[in-house]
Amino acid sequence: MVSRREVLRLGAVAAGTSFLPLTAVSEQTAAPPASIQALKSMRDQARPITAGERRQRIERARQHMAANKLDGICMIGGSSLLYFANVSWWNSERLGALVLPAKGEPFLVAPAFEEERLREQLVKGPFDSKADIRVWQEDEDPYRLVVQGLKDRGISAGTLGMEERVTFVFSNGVAQAAPALKIVSAPRSPPAAAWRNRRTNSS
Q1: pTM of the model
Q2: Given CA atoms 62, 67, 69, 74 in this order, what sign does their dihedral have?
Q3: What angle is formed at CA 159 by the lines to CA 191 and CA 171, rounded to 5 degrees?
Q4: Angstrom distance (rounded) from CA 202 to CA 78
């Protein structure tokens, strides 16, 4: 005697197979037009973005910052970090940031346990393995590292732009640690407009 479970299983199989001819027909009718099929791959013409090009991007950003009285720009994981540093960073509640000062070398702030992974990515971009990375432990204040990095570059006051992806908790943390700094939204300033339509190829 066929059990109820077996009947249900056979019914499900039959229902599924009944759709196969329709699927096959739909795949045939969905074939792209001849003009599309005639297109040839241009993959061999693609060229990876070089570290030199990213260094040029940093210099152009510095020129815009100087022209618009920004002393630096802070960014977290996202398209800008890829654009400038070729770093793919997963944002979390822990601060991981790149600071581009108008003058002086860029520096990064990251949790200590992420340092090795970050350095591995940095060697594929405009920075080398000796890049200035300020790491912090769980019981330490990461915002003071941002402030100290700026001070080491002669920026103890002035205006710091926050890139559009920087969350309030991070920008507010920097503001609280450096009350002499004026924090502004970078996307509303002319420097950000210069890279609004940027390429973010990370290869």
Answers
A1: 0.71
A2: negative
A3: 90
A4: 11
The answer to whether residues 88 and 64 belong to one domain is: yes
- Give the pLDDT score at 191: 42
| Structural tokens at position 15 | 């229902």
- R_g of the chain, CA atoms, integer Å: 25
Strand 97-101 and strand 72-75: the pairing is antiparallel
Q: State both tokens at 116.
A: 């090795």
Residue 136 and residue 172 share a domain: yes
Q: Alpha-carbon distance 37 to 184, whole Å?
A: 50
- What total of structural domains would you count in the chain? 2
Chain centroid offset of residue 102 CA: 20
Give the C-alpha separation, 161 to 65, whole Å: 9
Residue 203 lies in a domain: no
Same domain (yes/no): 185, 141: yes
pLDDT per residue as tens digits for the range 52-80: 999 999 999 999 898 889 999 999 999 99
- Which tokens sit at 189? 């300033």
Is residue 200 assigned to a domain? no
